[in-house]
Design brief:
- With 323 residues, this protein is of the alpha/beta class.
- The protein folds into two domains: 10-109 and 291-319, NAD(P)-binding Rossmann-like Domain (Rossmann fold); 111-283, 3-Layer(aba) Sandwich (Rossmann fold), CATH 3.40.50.720.
- Helix content is 31%, strand content 14%.
- The chain has eleven helices and 13 strands.
- The protein has helices at 24-27, 45-52, 69-73, 93-98, 111-126, 129-137, 161-172, 195-201, 221-226, 244-252, 292-310; strands spanning 10-12, 36-37, 57-60, 80-83, 102-104, 153-157, 176-180, 191-192, 204-207, 232-235, 258-261, 281-283, 317-319.
- It has a seven-stranded parallel beta sheet, with helices on both faces. A six-stranded mixed beta sheet has the order 2-1-3-4-5-13.
- Helix 1 (24-27) links the parallel strand 1 and strand 2.
- It starts with 9 loop residues before the first strand and ends with a strand.
């Protein structure tokens, strides 16, 4: 349905750095001139509340913007929170439902992008690409010390859309794929094993879980102690799923051969962080799902969710208003 100046108040409070504003999805969004749009982060809860005061619909771009119980309590007009992305760990979903707010997200649109990125991280760590590149540029000619992945075991933790796609990519380069998931389904076609068995037998362990109270600190000192000293960890999910201190200790003591990380406990990663000095770690800035293709598809879906909700046919609902 067209969205006009006389329609519901819609606010985009946090498009920084801007991704929605320059997109084709935004340029083609009916009534965007009537939407209150901010290309800076709120920074504080009070500033967020000021920006969304009186809004019936909020389009959330950045996961650093947190929708806490007080935010919902003090936003009585709010009916829809449309999230760009799959993760909802920045939103208190119970509070949203309690205050009559429907929450939607954009599932699946970044699955291919993130799976490809996980593959790139795995190969970069196994082949030591960043270090070899740096040494070659410095006039050195290093030899050997790389790992071949064909015939190795890839352990997938979490078989959502991303985990399944990465599993197929791993199988495509000749890896043996095993998996553990919270919701086992043999019809998915992957060999399902106990978590401890996966950790003990995998040459590469890749995380594809959502962050929740159940998964926070999911991989800690105990789990790292079970892994092969030659193993590689890949994390493109959420930094807090891993006990970062335990991971750093495992890397420093050579109980873990390497890691490819796109996510961190604190983002952006602080200056002088121990991971920045780790030669056996490849780091990227939480960018796995931000290809041009995935970016545009996700932003379009976030806006489609707004349009469909206002038309009375909500799509991609994470939680429905309870009032």
């Amino acid at each position: 349905m067209p969205i006009t100046g006389g329609g519901p108040r819609i606010v985009v409070p946090d498009d920084a750095p801007p991704v929605l504003g320059p997109s084709a999805a935004w340029k083609n969004f009916d009534g965007r001139d009537a939407v209150q749009y901010f290309d800076s982060l709120p920074g504080t809860e009070e500033r967020l509340l000021e920006r969304i005061a009186g809004a019936e619909v909020v389009v959330n771009i950045r996961s650093s913007t947190r929708f806490t119980p007080p935010v919902f309590e003090r936003s009585p007009a709010l009916r829809l929170l449309s999230i760009w992305g799959t993760g909802t760990d920045n939103v208190d979903l119970e509070a949203a439902a309690r205050h009559g707010v429907t929450v939607t997200n954009t599932p699946g649109v970044s699955a291919t992008s993130i799976a490809e990125h996980a593959l790139a991280l795995m190969l970069a760590v196994a082949r030591r690409i960043p270090r070899l590149d740096s040494q070659t540029r410095a006039g050195e000619w290093p030899r050997g010390q790389m790992t071949q992945l064909q015939g190795k075991t890839l352990g997938i933790i979490g078989l959502g859309a991303i985990g399944r796609k990465f599993a197929r990519l791993g199988a495509g380069i000749g890896m043996r794929v095993i998996a553990w998931t919270m919701h086992p389904d043999p019809s998915l076609g992957f060999a399902l094993v106990d978590l401890d068995d996966l950790l003990q037998s995998s040459d590469v362990v890749s995380l594809h879980l959502r962050l929740s109270d159940q998964t926070r600190g999911f991989l800690g000192a105990r789990e790292f102690a079970l892994m092969k000293s030659s193993a590689i960890l890949i994390n493109t999910a959420r930094g807090a799923i891993v006990d970062e201190a335990a991971m750093i200790d495992a890397l420093r003591s050579n109980r873990l051969a390497g890691a490819g990380l796109d996510v961190f406990a604190v983002e952006p990663i602080p200056a002088n962080h121990a991971l920045l000095e780790s030669a056996n770690v490849v780091l990227t800035p939480h960018a796995a799902g931000i290809t041009v293709e995935a970016l545009e598809a996700g932003l379009q879906l976030a806006l489609d969710n707004v349009r469909n909700f206002l038309a009375g046919r909500p799509t991609n609902v994470v939680i429905t208003a309870s009032r």
